[in-house]
Sequence to fold (1340 residues):
Amino acid sequence: MPNIAVLGCGRIGRMHAANVAAHPRAALAGVFDVHRTAADEVAGTHGVPSFESAEAVLASRDVDAILIATSTSTHADFIEQAVAAGRPILCEKPIDLSLDRVNRCAAAIGETRLPIMLGFVRRFDPGHRATRSAIQAGDIGDLHQVVITSRDPGMAPAAYIEVSGGIFRDMTIHDFDMARFMLGEEPITVSATGSRLVDPALMTRCGDYDTVTVVLTTASGKQCIINNSRQAAYGYDQRVEALGTRGMVISENRKPHQATRFSAEFTSRGVPYLNFFIERYAEAFNAEIGAFVDAVESGTAPEVGFEDGRLALVLAEAALKSVAEGRTIRISEIG
Amino acid sequence: MPNIAVLGCGRIGRMHAANVAAHPRAALAGVFDVHRTAADEVAGTHGVPSFESAEAVLASRDVDAILIATSTSTHADFIEQAVAAGRPILCEKPIDLSLDRVNRCAAAIGETRLPIMLGFVRRFDPGHRATRSAIQAGDIGDLHQVVITSRDPGMAPAAYIEVSGGIFRDMTIHDFDMARFMLGEEPITVSATGSRLVDPALMTRCGDYDTVTVVLTTASGKQCIINNSRQAAYGYDQRVEALGTRGMVISENRKPHQATRFSAEFTSRGVPYLNFFIERYAEAFNAEIGAFVDAVESGTAPEVGFEDGRLALVLAEAALKSVAEGRTIRISEIG
Amino acid sequence: MPNIAVLGCGRIGRMHAANVAAHPRAALAGVFDVHRTAADEVAGTHGVPSFESAEAVLASRDVDAILIATSTSTHADFIEQAVAAGRPILCEKPIDLSLDRVNRCAAAIGETRLPIMLGFVRRFDPGHRATRSAIQAGDIGDLHQVVITSRDPGMAPAAYIEVSGGIFRDMTIHDFDMARFMLGEEPITVSATGSRLVDPALMTRCGDYDTVTVVLTTASGKQCIINNSRQAAYGYDQRVEALGTRGMVISENRKPHQATRFSAEFTSRGVPYLNFFIERYAEAFNAEIGAFVDAVESGTAPEVGFEDGRLALVLAEAALKSVAEGRTIRISEIG
Amino acid sequence: MPNIAVLGCGRIGRMHAANVAAHPRAALAGVFDVHRTAADEVAGTHGVPSFESAEAVLASRDVDAILIATSTSTHADFIEQAVAAGRPILCEKPIDLSLDRVNRCAAAIGETRLPIMLGFVRRFDPGHRATRSAIQAGDIGDLHQVVITSRDPGMAPAAYIEVSGGIFRDMTIHDFDMARFMLGEEPITVSATGSRLVDPALMTRCGDYDTVTVVLTTASGKQCIINNSRQAAYGYDQRVEALGTRGMVISENRKPHQATRFSAEFTSRGVPYLNFFIERYAEAFNAEIGAFVDAVESGTAPEVGFEDGRLALVLAEAALKSVAEGRTIRISEIG
Fold:
């Protein structure tokens, strides 16, 4: 049962710490955050050490593996340090906003055989996973089209958006990984369209988009359509649809319960969807910890690794270039 | 292509006349109503004769068959007259409110081989029919329970309720027939419960109930549960559920279209159900005409006949007795 | 944060022990089972004491409250002992199979102000709870009918059935409580129908039924229809429907995920329902622990208490009598 | 009540003739087809004249309006002739495969005030129409994204594909019109992606695609995503989704009935969708006739006219150019 230390005690770090602590096959070794009070609070809740520094975490004999949930700009550094310290890693996405930095990180960690897992949590969602299993089992024949609908319930704060790296690197990155997960072939072209509709002023100021569509194709012609919006009034919208020669599978949204109302004005009115990612992907975050424990215990490569993180970023770069140039970009054009 | 005359030009008679007129395999021979202006109007719309009397209809060489959609109290008389005149009959339910009168009618028409079809239209609904077909095909194994939910959108006018014969003879009668259609075995016991909730004053005055539950059992122990209400604010509610050893089939309600809304307050909000029977069972009323034409042309017994009408009334009598005596009634106790 | 000891380490006891251990507001004080190895195993998993006897549990200063998950025949004894020891109780249903024993237990514990909570877990299901909240909020106007569909996925082992006390005391008991929860008024009449369809030989041998329908009415005429089957091939079926003057609410079944398939033969094919009660009511079992902790910490009466357990058994007795005598039973006829 | 003559007695012409004949507000004046036996058969069924030539139709005093359902290459000619003859027109889409020919036709008919209606039947579908009404009523706030899923049940015969003008002019043309109907603003850019997956050999031979995605944007940045496939094993897939600032509306597919099955392997299994356009859009084809009658009787412009047909073809041209050049095309680049 590995002792896992969590770096970062923000919203997602706290969630991971609680999941590790409650996990039947893992233990929480301690936490660290540059905001010491945040770390102390989480440590107190779970009765584990609050480390003074990331170095102290990596130096501790009681830490078998680390989970990186700090701010994005620190991910690559911590990955390099953890590899140097011989600790398996579960790192939140993205590895870095800069593809160049990611490539240097890849060079730095070289041929390490340490498990390095990327936090593309949606791969562990029961519905999305069942969809992929159906594809792999041949239930829908040969895959032709994947449609990913992925919309946040509402615009993040301006302060967040400003440093997010833009919608493709911050939000669509999950969908790029989902596209690769479903397609079973690497995309070779990217065509993207961006609009400023939710908060045009903020988007213009940041050179960003809040409403985007991306079309990916593979060498065999398979298509994946991603549509994103920073604002879905009806809640966090996370759907995946796969069309093949013999049928279709749709992974639909989830509601907190199945009570529906009927009145003179409407029928079958359901409650809003689970909101936000911590609720929607609660089971997935738990399964992710389990998959990481598997990798740590077996010493084998995790299902979703460093290169998956890098390839998703390559797709984000291509999408940016596509919007800027108004043309379809071949992946081979990207570093 | 039989020429069918319609007796009765009220709401349901007008609908039948239009259906017969538009039917590719039938022709409208003319109409009759004691309210001559009503008949003239319908006749004018379709360019057919408005007969002076029912006798004139039955005497006409241009009339091959008759459809009885007059008030209930005249049904048995017209059946007897039409049989005497050698005309196949499609008669709206119920045959009569009095089981005694129905039995006398049965005696009067004797062993006639003329097709006499009862207007239990729900048997022709595509969803209900698919449910019964699934049962008969063994899709759900041996049938154990049938649950019929049947609720009107709103209370009928007091003037109608007063002469309706009560909820069991007027409204549940359709469900009694549906129960027999689904069960595939005759019910042998009836247990009924009646409440006065929608309009207690009216119900008390009429000695009637507006909210009832009936439980039927067959000799082999199959159960059918019927629940009725005179008022479903969300619209005409018509569901049938069948449970068997290997599964279940549910025939769900239908909406005019499948556009659904999503907002901050709700998800998947559908529009109200089709309302009322003329809209909800539009396809069924059409299919009913087709089935009648089949019977007329082949001279064979229709799928749902006089005895089906009589047996539904027997169940209604048993339900009334059950409510009155607070006990389960055996069908053999009813005349 | 109360230390809760769990009595009984069978399937449901083990689940409760795990829930208490993982609960953020409760701690597992230890476990006991007459099968010592079962208790030791559960104790080992959670690193808590395995008590030698129930007496030892109640004598322990480290035990603030107890959760009774032993076999039914011991419930009343343990309730009396725990009350004598001054420990709040969460007891699995039913209190006892004998109404007489329950009444004696009630007398024995007298006017105790100790929280005694009954494990009618379905009250804590998010969907059922939202349904009741909608009723109480007036969303559907005045309540007229409640329809409870409650079917087990498959027949329990004969050994279990033989000592279960029969379907009304063992299975319908949950639905009797749900009926009371939804109706908001006490039922005053019970009419029940029982069939032997799933395993006629076993049912005949035990004098039991495997397929039953129960109709309850309240003084104001509200109706509740319960339909039960010991076998639903498509999984554990747990639905609640409430009809009122202004609309309807339905608490529908839940599936493990929302991936659905479409093919040449079908559309929208979902995966089977969550199966069995431990999966279906996982959130409810957790919320139940939370509600118990609330009662223990505040010292107030839990939402569902001893008298609720007793009244559900009264309804079961009435149902048995109704089937036996073929008539509607008034609750006032039952002890 | 206008007398409408139908030109063309193929599958869709026969359907239109039957709809006109059965329509309560229209009469069938006769039919014409270059295959005289086809025309005679349809004329016989409805008891109307089978005209010798299109000229004879337009010369007949008994013909108030014409419905053009002949092969595409004749549409523009018949439009010009009917305008010359002063007869209102309902013409099946597309006007012509050549934008140049359409522009010449526009010039030829000039400023005519005769009602010329284009057969974009999907605008009359109750669900799609309710979706647009919700948008227009502001139910979803400001519109941001429209997603149109439009897939045929199976590949048309090679002989048809070869002369179809390609998927964008033949199939997507309906979706281009639907996009304009929903967006409420003209698209100004088109980005299209085409794949050959269903029948690569045929597609390569024809220089066509069977699986396409098109992204349209308007001046204000609204996006519309269209995804098409020539093959959906589960049936004709016709969905429209509209996302706005305050919510979403989805117009879902329709099934012939709502009976669903449940078994040990699945839940809520529905029957396949209505198949093909004649069944799926039956109500819409009828409503289209009604809208045409309105235009004929009032002499005003129909809701969907010649220019709508031309603009849909412009979008098809832009999509073709986008696939060929791998870039986003501005509508202003197209003639």
Notes: Chain B has two domains: 3-114, 125-281+311-333. Residues 125-281+311-333 of chain B form a domain with the Dihydrodipicolinate Reductase; domain 2 fold (CATH 3.30.360.10). Residues 306-325 of chain B form the longest helix (20 residues). The CA atoms of residues 147 and 225 of chain B lie 5 Å apart.
